[in-house]
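Here is the promised in-class demo. Please do not try to memorize the tokens; focus on the logic of going from shape to residues.
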């Protein structure tokens, strides 16, 4: 926590010599000044007593503290208090980061200190107090700082009465400012040199209001203010402006500079705005720039063509701008003052330059691919961030020898080879995660005694690693070794502790025991031990670890067993225990929990009523356990925050809760595989965000819920294996089920004609716009569904957004198959088997070029198999058995791969592969396409995939969204059973 202490020290350092003298100076000579004025002393004590004082965890020292303000003592000697020497009146009050808590009301004694000209209350917690208009009564005030102190509400216009203000800082996330109040501040505060309104909500403010700011202004900070509209170009023409921060106002527009002039600006922050940046003019006009932040900006013209006159640049952020090609090392490395360079999240390619061994200067970098020097080794760099590019090759050894380097982030690239040895001991952060690095962790890592962050995850590092090797790194805050090929053990640790440890990720490190050394890490915030080999009960010491600090805990994918007692964490937000063998009653995390995953265990009993206290839940996944009883009605009350409710494969009974309220954000409701009965609750219609509704394999008895057709985002509807009955009927709206991509009504009692009017409007199946490899789900949760493909029930653990299927099998639908189904050109699978359909197979089916399986078996279809079906070059499963079809079987293309089982039970069919020869006038139609065209570019090669289908063995399902390959991708798909 040393950085926090330093921050407090900086807060309490007097910044303005004209108004802030130290307490020691103010008390150095009693003969030269009066004692503290009694009125002011009394007012300060009253102010102190109206507030609380609390030290944050781990902080035991404050320069600014009211705890030593004692009655009977001269208040001019109190910490943070400055007095006028002659009168004894309090003129300065510095309580920044003083641990103060409470409300400041308008009748506070603070406002009776009428001679105050300098007030700093920043970095405290005033619990959402409004800024009182009484602050406008300090007529002599020159410096006012109320920043980051949890003030709330509108900034009062009476702040504009402080006409002598030189510095005003009101940065608070809960504050708002309207145009009227801003105009008054701009008009009346003509002496302002520093104005900081960061985080203040000014979404209603017109940016033109800033045009008339004081010409003496040197600093203007307006980042994260929700500003929108065009920002006036004239601001950058202010003659004295040194610092301008407009960052992270994503709807703020503008264009500057347009003309040639010389600006004194030293700090410019335009990150994440829509202000157009002309790199050519910028580098020509802003010759004094020292810090330039242009993350995710809008560039016009030829950006980065040259650096022009930016020779004084010390900090440069050009991240997230989609820049590509080679990094222009010669530009950056010749900036002699550059200490901070961030080029992360671009599209840079290529390798690092290396040291030129032939150069007479040992500090020259040479690009061997271009046969030219690119510049000197940047020994002055303290931070280098190249995260999220496409850099390849190895890490150059000169990066490990930069004497000033403190932060190195090369994560999420394609770097390979071994990690270099680091000679510099200045490093505080080494982030090399998500690359292709291999070998052992270098020995020098364990000698970096100042190291605070070490991320080596998702590489190919290997070897047996004794954690004792990290014993010298006492300053570690974050350590991530996850998903390598390491085998981590904790022998010989003795009494080693890491008191500062805040994040620890040992996922997939072949751990066989809980790291006992963690018992003393009471400041731990994030702990990830998933995908290991821990076979044990969860120890009591772990359940009590970081009671006040732990927010994220992931113990999933282990072999944990036994029961879990009461969870003691007070501020937990994320708890993941899924894929273990835990037993007993369901544990309930604290009310602060947002994400609760406990699926694939062996929990029993009813859902405890205490689950109703989890009103902040966003994802609740209790699937694949042995839970019984009814689903609490309170679950529906979570819907204002709950996005995913996954209770599938338990033994819940009763009815589905009907308490879903208007305005809920429920996106996925999965109750598949329980014993629920009754009818569907009408309040499901309030779930306007619903994308997945899976109610399959229950005992629900109802008619088809056509009232769900108006849900605008519904993509998956599973009603399989229930007791639904009756006709589906016709739509009640003009655009029913527009986004529906997966629908399964199989194994019910539906009857009547197939719903042709619904098929006409299945837009997502008619012409899907999805072609990228994306999956349904969000953040920590991937949507899952069980579908029937080729007679196999397959659990798609991840659902690709272009997967589409219709399954109406095992009902009593009758009548003809509608021709309109041929319009569903994005459809992957269609199953109408085991119904009472009559008529012929529509030739329009030949238009469904993406169709990969078609099952029309066990109906009463007549006529021949349309020759147009040979156009279905992606078709890999075809079953028309047990119908009344006649005539020759088409041949060529995919039809040459189908077995006898596809046609059995149709006595009138003839041709290959059946043994029945067609009569002369029944010659099988020939294919008009090449026989080697067996696979559509977006389809499956089922001939390869299902060798041995007759024996019921699935060897593989290719093309990305269904993969079975020696169990190595069982996280993506599981074969559940055979229909």
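The designed amino acids, position by position:
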């Amino acid at each position: 926590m040393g950085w926090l202490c330093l921050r407090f020290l900086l807060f309490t350092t007097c910044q303005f010599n004209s108004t802030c003298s130290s307490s020691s100076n103010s008390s150095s000579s009693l003969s030269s000044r009066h004692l503290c004025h009694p009125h002011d002393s009394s007012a300060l004590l009253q102010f102190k007593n109206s507030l609380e004082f609390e030290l944050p965890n781990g902080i035991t020292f404050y320069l600014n503290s009211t705890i030593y303000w004692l009655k009977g003592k001269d208040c001019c000697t109190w910490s943070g208090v400055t007095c006028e020497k002659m009168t004894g009146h309090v003129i300065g009050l510095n309580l920044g980061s003083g641990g103060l808590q409470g409300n400041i009301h308008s009748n506070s004694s603070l406002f009776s200190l009428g001679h105050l000209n300098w007030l700093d209350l920043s970095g405290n917690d005033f619990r959402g107090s409004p800024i009182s208009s009484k602050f406008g009564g300090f007529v002599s005030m020159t410096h006012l700082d109320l920043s980051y102190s949890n003030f709330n509400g509108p900034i009062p216009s009476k702040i504009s009465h402080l006409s002598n203000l030189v510095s005003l800082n009101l940065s608070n996330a809960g504050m708002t400012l309207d145009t009227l109040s801003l105009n008054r501040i701009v008009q009346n505060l003509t002496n302002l040199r520093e104005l900081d309104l960061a985080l203040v909500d000014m979404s209603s403010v017109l940016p033109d209001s800033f045009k008339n700011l004081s010409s003496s202004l040197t600093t203007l900070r307006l980042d994260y203010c929700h500003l929108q509209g065009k920002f006036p170009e004239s601001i950058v023409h202010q003659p004295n402006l040194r610092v301008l921060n407009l960052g992270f106002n994503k709807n703020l527009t503008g264009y500057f500079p347009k003309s040639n002039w010389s600006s004194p600006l030293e700090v410019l922050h335009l990150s994440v705005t829509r202000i157009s940046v002309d790199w050519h003019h910028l580098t020509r006009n802003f010759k004094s720039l020292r810090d330039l932040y242009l993350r995710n900006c809008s560039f016009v013209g030829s950006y980065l063509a040259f650096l022009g006159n930016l020779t004084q640049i010390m900090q440069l952020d050009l991240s997230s701008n989609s820049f590509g090609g080679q990094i222009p090392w010669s530009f950056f490395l010749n900036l002699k003052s550059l200490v901070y360079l961030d080029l992360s999240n671009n599209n840079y390619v290529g390798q690092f330059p290396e040291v030129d061994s032939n150069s007479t200067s040992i500090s020259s970098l040479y690009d061997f691919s271009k046969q030219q020097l690119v510049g000197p080794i940047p020994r002055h760099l303290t931070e280098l961030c190249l995260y999220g590019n496409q850099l390849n090759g190895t890490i150059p050894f000169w990066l490990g020898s930069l004497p000033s380097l403190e932060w190195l982030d090369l994560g999420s690239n394609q770097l390979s080879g071994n990690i270099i040895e680091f000679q510099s001991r200045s490093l505080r952060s080494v982030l090399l995660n998500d690359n292709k690095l291999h070998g052992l962790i270098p020995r020098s890592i364990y000698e970096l005694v100042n190291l605070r962050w070490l991320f080596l995850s998702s590489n190919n590092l290997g070897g047996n690693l004794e954690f004792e090797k990290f014993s010298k790194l006492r300053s570690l805050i974050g350590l991530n070794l996850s998903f390598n090929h390491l085998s981590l053990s904790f022998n010989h640790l003795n009494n080693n502790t890491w008191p500062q440890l805040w994040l620890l990720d040992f996922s997939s490190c072949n751990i066989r025991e809980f790291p006992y050394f963690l018992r003393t890490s009471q400041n731990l915030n994030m702990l990830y031990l998933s995908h290991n080999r821990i076979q044990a009960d969860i120890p009591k010491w772990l359940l009590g670890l970081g009671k006040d600090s732990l927010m994220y805990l992931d113990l999933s994918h282990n072999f944990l067993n036994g029961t879990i007692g009461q969870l003691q964490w007070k501020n937990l937000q994320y708890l993941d225990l899924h894929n273990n063998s835990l037993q007993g009653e369901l544990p309930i995390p604290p009310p602060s929990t947002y994400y609760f995953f406990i699926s694939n265990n062996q929990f029993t009993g009813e859902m405890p009523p205490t689950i109703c206290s989890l009103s902040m839940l966003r994802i609740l996944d209790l699937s694949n356990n042995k839970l019984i009883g009814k689903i609490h009605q309170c679950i529906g009350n979570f819907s204002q925050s709950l996005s995913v409710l996954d209770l599938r494969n338990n033994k819940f009974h009763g009815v589905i809760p009907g308490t879903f309220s208007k305005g809920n954000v429920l996106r996925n409701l999965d109750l598949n595989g329980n014993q629920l009965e009754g009818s569907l609750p009408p309040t499901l219609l309030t779930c306007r965000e619903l994308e997945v509704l899976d109610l399959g394999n229950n005992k629900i008895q109802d008619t088809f819920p056509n009232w769900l057709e108006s849900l605008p985002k519904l993509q998956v509807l599973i009603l399989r294996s229930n007791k639904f009955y009756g006709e589906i009927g016709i739509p009640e709206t003009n655009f029913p089920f527009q986004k529906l991509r997966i629908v399964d009504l199989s194994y019910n009692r539906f009857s009547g004609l197939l719903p042709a009017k619904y098929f006409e409007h299945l837009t997502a199946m008619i012409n899907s716009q999805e072609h990228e490899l994306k999956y349904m789900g969000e953040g920590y949760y991937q949507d899952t569904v069980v579908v029937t493909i080729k007679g196999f029930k397959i659990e798609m653990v991840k659902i690709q957004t272009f997967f589409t299927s219709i399954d109406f099998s095992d009902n009593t639908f009758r009548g003809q198959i509608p021709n309109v189904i041929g319009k569903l050109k994005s459809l992957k699978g269609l199953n109408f088997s085991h119904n009472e359909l009559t008529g012929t197979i529509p030739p329009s089916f030949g238009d469904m070029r993406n169709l990969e399986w078609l099952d029309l078996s066990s109906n009463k279809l007549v006529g021949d198999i349309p020759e147009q079906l040979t156009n279905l070059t992606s078709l890999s499963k075809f079953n028309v058995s047990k119908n009344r079809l006649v005539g020759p079987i088409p041949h060529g293309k995919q039809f040459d791969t189908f077995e006898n089982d596809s046609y059995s039970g149709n006595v009138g069919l003839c041709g290959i592969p059946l043994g029945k020869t067609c009569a002369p006038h029944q010659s099988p139609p020939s294919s008009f396409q090449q026989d080697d065209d067996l696979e559509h570019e977006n389809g499956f090669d089922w001939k390869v995939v299902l060798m041995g289908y007759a024996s019921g063995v699935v060897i593989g399902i290719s093309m990305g969204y269904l993969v079975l390959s020696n169990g190595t991708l069982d996280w993506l798909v599981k074969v559940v059973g055979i229909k």
